[in-house]
């Protein structure tokens, strides 16, 4: 076992990844110390540590707890909540409410990444359609949020983590696709502003300008921008 794996808690992540942000936010909410390792070339040159600990998907994030790996961001967040019970609870204990939180986090996973990609991976009319579809998914989430401060009600939790982790990417998409969440989804905008006031979130999320630069670089590579 290497000295890295001997550490009590290690997170393999990547700075621009909304999925590793979820884990970082959850750990910060619980006040847990861990060692962070940046997976520098997650797409084209994966580290032996990543390949060893996530041989199935070969993706970050991976949380290694006492040498044992846990993969898939939402499963990791749930593991954190189950393991560090004494900290701030992220999931409701009531089975029905828990199932609803799992449903909406799954909705985020099924639609938000692919929806955002419709915008930054297209141009012209395609991009316009992408914006409409993406805003449509956000409006469904806004309806679910309703008048509540957080998805779970009064307290920040699982669904908030699942979605707020995308916020820097959403801001970058607004700039690229020329739309406004504040205008199209005002309640969701207020929710995001509230979430951003939490240190766990503001200290974790990447700078939207850097995400925008990254997406523009990818667009240029794909011939979508000069
Ligand atoms: C997604 C992780 C993922 O896509 C989760 O953890 O929730 N469902 C998973 N990770 C990306 C980096 S973020 O865009 C990744 O590791 N990609 C490497 C690859 O696709 O080879």
Please characterize this protein's 3D structure.
The protein is an alpha+beta fold and 226 residues long. It folds into 2 domains: 3-83, Glutaredoxin (3-Layer(aba) Sandwich), CATH 3.40.30.10; 95-221, Glutathione S-transferase Yfyf (Class Pi), Chain A, domain 2 (Up-down Bundle). Helix content is 59%, strand content 8%. The chain contains 12 helices and 4 strands; from the N terminus they run αβαβαββααααααααα. It has helices at residues 3-6, 18-30, 48-53, 73-83, 95-120, 124-145, 158-164, 167-177, 181-184, 186-196, 199-202, 208-221, and strands spanning 9-13, 35-38, 62-65, 68-71. Strands 2-1-3-4 form a 4-stranded mixed beta sheet. Strand 1 (9-13), helix 2 and strand 2 (35-38) form a beta-alpha-beta unit. Helix 8 (167-177) crosses helix 12 (208-221). 36% of the residues are buried. Bound molecules: S-Hydroxy-Glutathione (GS8). The site of S-Hydroxy-Glutathione has 12 residues, from helix 4.
């Amino acid at each position: 076992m290497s000295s890295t794996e001997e550490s009590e808690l290690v997170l393999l992540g990547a700075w621009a990844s909304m999925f590793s942000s979820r884990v970082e936010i959850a750990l910060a909410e619980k006040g847990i110390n861990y060692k962070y390792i940046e997976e520098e070339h997650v797409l084209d040159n994966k580290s032996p540590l990543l390949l060893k600990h996530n041989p199935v998907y070969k993706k970050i994030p991976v949380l290694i707890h006492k040498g044992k790996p846990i993969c898939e961001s939402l499963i990791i967040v749930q593991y954190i909540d189950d393991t560090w019970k004494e900290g701030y609870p992220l999931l409701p204990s009531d089975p029905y409410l828990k199932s609803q939180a799992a449903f909406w986090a799954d909705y985020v996973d099924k639609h938000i990444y692919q929806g955002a990609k419709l915008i930054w991976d297209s141009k012209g009319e395609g991009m316009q359609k992408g914006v409409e579809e993406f805003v449509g998914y956000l409006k469904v989430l806004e309806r679910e949020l309703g008048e509540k401060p957080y998805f779970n009600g009064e307290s920040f939790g699982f669904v908030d983590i699942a979605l707020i982790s995308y916020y820097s990417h959403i801001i970058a998409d607004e700039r690229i696709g020329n739309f406004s969440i504040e205008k199209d989804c005002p309640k969701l905008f207020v929710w995001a502003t509230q979430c951003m006031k939490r240190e766990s979130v503001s200290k974790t999320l990447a700078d939207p300008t850097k995400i925008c630069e990254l997406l523009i670089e990818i667009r240029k590579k794909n011939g979508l921008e000069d």
